[in-house]
Design brief:
Layout lengths: L7 E10 L2 E11 L4 E6 L5 H8 L7 E6 L2 E3 L4 H6 L2 E4 L11 H6 L5 E2 L2 E2 L1 H15 L14 H14 L4 E5 L7 H16 L3 E5 L3 H7 L2 E6 L2 E7 L5 H9 L17 E11 L6 E11 L2 E6 L6 H9 L6 E6 L2 E2 L5 H7 L1 E4 L3 H5 L6 H5 L18 H14 L17 H14 L4 E5 L7 H16 L3 E6 L2 H7 L2 E6 L2 E6 L6 H8 L10
Parallel strand pairs: 3-10, 3-11, 6-9, 9-10, 15-20, 15-21, 18-19, 19-20
Antiparallel strand pairs: 1-2, 1-4, 4-5, 7-8, 11-12, 13-14, 13-16, 16-17, 21-22
């Protein structure tokens, strides 16, 4: 009996960029109705390979077959016509459009030149109900959480009735509950006969949802394994080329003086009339890691915006190293010793069209090391500084310091931001989702850096949606729910289940306990 042809087969695909071969004769075979994971370090070529399949890039060599027939995919419209859809790691959404408009954009139903919005809305709401992708179709993209933007992207794909679904790091921005929901959605889609390509760094998710897994390393094909016949240690070895330490190595914390003192902080919400942060008070001491945990959208982002100066606060005070910085400009906070690894690396972390070296000195270019007395940049110093950080933090880029930030993989953009912020030798390090989109090897390294900051007597405020990270990296956990801190927990004495109850609002500490 002849086997059915592969839903998608990419044979010997090679894609080059200046200074780098992103895909070096890679072969990938996706069976009908399977969930096929694509695993590899940051910059291994996973997103590039999927972008070739989706028509965003053209490969220099190799062929693509769909259902056994060779196809040419010159652009995403060709891909859509072939039933191939993609949810990108960095969402392709129009910020000033509504959720509904983004979903139907490019696939609008019209009658006599008028948009048939009612039918479109009904179809979107039916899909959203069927797959548990709750969205507000009238909300503006710029006002909704990243988790909600993720759902919008998935609905965009389902709206077009695509049968080959590419998910590029789909869980990087989701909460544990949302991740479980999404994995279930993927299982349901596969059960309906859709074929799924799933890029992820998270070995737990791959083990839980995928049928097979293809591993890339530095642009080369390493192998394809059946999930039933492998384990996390083997997958990480294939991916990184060495054994990876999964546990975070850290000794006892020795908290000293208060570095950050937040009192009755209130931050207004941009999305609704209520305040996003309501009278929040807490302290972070030198030599400790305090983690703000919570389900996405409970005020963590706005709390960090208020502390870091990205948003104005409407009440309360923020004191750092004994100085009131409630209304201080961002540069003053930076010079005082605040470093901030932001949640959105594109919006707040990098100037995407600047080179890597210019991004490395964004908050320090005015220092004598980088600017001379006449106000001219010391280009030689900037270059050697950037080269040191690139080397130290293993930031992989095609052209080193002169690589344009936009052209780098998401994980390497993240490493560049972390290098810059930690190298400032801060008094207070605010790290929001620092390991988002990073592979196990890079996560191991970043966790070590954060613990090293604590051990050097720095104060660390960590904001994370990753429960493993919350439990293993932090010394104290503060849980936020609906804009308030509802509990303070000791990671050594609490459980993931108890933490989950606080995060869901089912448990609340009595005031004054």
């Amino acid at each position: 009996m002849q086997e059915a042809p592969y839903a998608i087969e990419m044979v010997n695909v090679t894609k080059r960029f200046p200074g780098i071969i992103a895909n070096d004769h890679v072969t990938l075979q996706l069976k009908k109705g399977e969930i096929h994971a694509l695993l590899g370090e940051n910059g291994a070529g996973k997103s590039t390979l999927m972008s070739v399949l989706f028509g965003l890039y053209q490969a220099e060599e190799g062929i693509i077959k769909k259902d056994g027939v060779e196809v040419k995919i010159n652009n995403p419209n060709d891909a859509n016509a072939l039933g191939i859809g993609m949810v990108h790691q960095h969402f392709k959404l129009v910020e000033c459009f509504s959720v509904l408009d983004n979903i139907i954009l490019g696939d609008e139903d019209t009658k006599h030149g008028f948009l048939q919005r009612t039918q479109a809305r009904e179809k979107v709401m039916a899909l959203s109900e069927k797959y548990g992708l709750r969205v507000n179709p009238d909300a503006m993209i710029e006002d909704i959480s990243v988790g909600m933007q993720q759902r919008t992207e998935i609905l965009k794909m389902l709206y077009r009735d695509n049968e080959i679904l590419i998910f590029d790091e789909p869980t990087a921005v989701l909460t544990p509950q949302e991740i479980e929901e999404l994995l279930q959605i993927m299982r349901n889609l596969a059960a309906e006969g859709k074929s799924i390509l799933f890029i992820s760094h998270k070995l737990n998710e791959i083990m839980s949802v995928a049928d097979r897994c293809t591993v890339l390393r530095k642009g080369k094909y390493i192998g394809t394994v059946s999930i039933a016949d492998t384990n996390k240690a083997e997958l990480s070895r294939m991916m990184v080329g060495r054994d990876v330490e999964f546990a975070v190595q850290k000794g006892e914390a020795h908290p000293a003086e208060v570095v950050l003192d937040v009192k009755d902080l209130t931050v207004p919400s941009k999305v609704h009339r209520n305040n996003a942060v309501k009278n929040v008070s807490f302290q972070v001491h030198a030599g400790e890691i305090v983690c703000i945990a919570g389900i996405d959208g409970n005020g963590q982002s706005e709390l960090v915006y208020g502390i870091s100066g990205l948003e104005s606060v409407s009440g309360g005070t923020v004191t750092m190293c004994g100085q009131d910085i409630t209304n201080a400009p961002i540069r003053r906070r930076s010079v005082l010793g605040m470093s901030h690894i932001p949640e959105d690396r594109h919006k707040h972390g990098l100037v995407l069209d600047y080179t890597l070296e210019d991004n490395m000195i964004l908050q320090r270019y005015f220092e004598p090391e980088f600017t001379n007395k006449l106000g001219f940049l010391r280009r030689k110093n900037i270059r050697s500084y950037a080269e040191r950080l690139i080397d130290q933090y293993d930031v992989r880029s095609g052209q080193g310091p002169v690589t344009v930030a936009r052209s780098m993989s998401g994980g390497n953009q993240q490493k560049a931001i972390i290098a810059r912020e930690i190298d400032k030798n801060p008094q207070l390090l605010i790290a929001v989702q620092p390991t988002r989109g990073l592979d196990v090897g890079a996560i191991e390294y970043i966790h070590r850096q954060i613990v090293a900051q604590r051990d050097a007597g720095k104060a660390v405020l960590l904001v994370s949606l990753e429960l493993d990270e919350v439990m293993t990296v932090s010394d104290r956990i503060l849980v936020m729910y609906e804009g308030e801190i509802v509990g303070e927990l000791d990671p050594k004495k609490t459980t993931v289940e108890e933490l989950g109850l606080y995060m869901a609002g089912a448990k609340k500490e009595a005031k004054g306990q």
